[in-house]
Design goal:
By secondary structure, this protein is mainly alpha-helical. The protein has one domain (8-107). Helix content is 67%, strand content 0%. It has five helices and no strands. The chain has helices spanning 8-14, 25-44, 48-68, 80-98, 103-107. Helix 2 (25-44) packs antiparallel against helix 3 (48-68) and helix 2 (25-44) packs parallel to helix 4 (80-98). The relative contact order is 0.17.
Length: 108
Amino acid sequence: MSFFPPNNILEEEIVTQRNLDPDREAIGHLLERFGEKFILSALEDAQYSIAVDNYLQMLDSLTEHFIADEHWCWFDDFYSPDYTVSRIWDEFIPTCVLVPWQESLWQN
């Protein structure tokens, strides 16, 4: 059950069976590139709604993958996508403090 409209790049190119490896490093690296191209660049261009939408879609896709593949059964300390998501989130923090966000973005 997805809460956000699926993002074709995430669903068809990143979070797929062909990118599965032991610690999900391939998915982590691809998410890093996705984050830089579609999230961080949107923040830099003051397109906050786009950045928020893409970040939430990324979290939604990754959550679906984590649950569907039952990662909690063998989860260890190193899950590469988690580090990527956390690093991108760290870019949001200064923006959240400096930018007057629209109420609709907070509701998302």
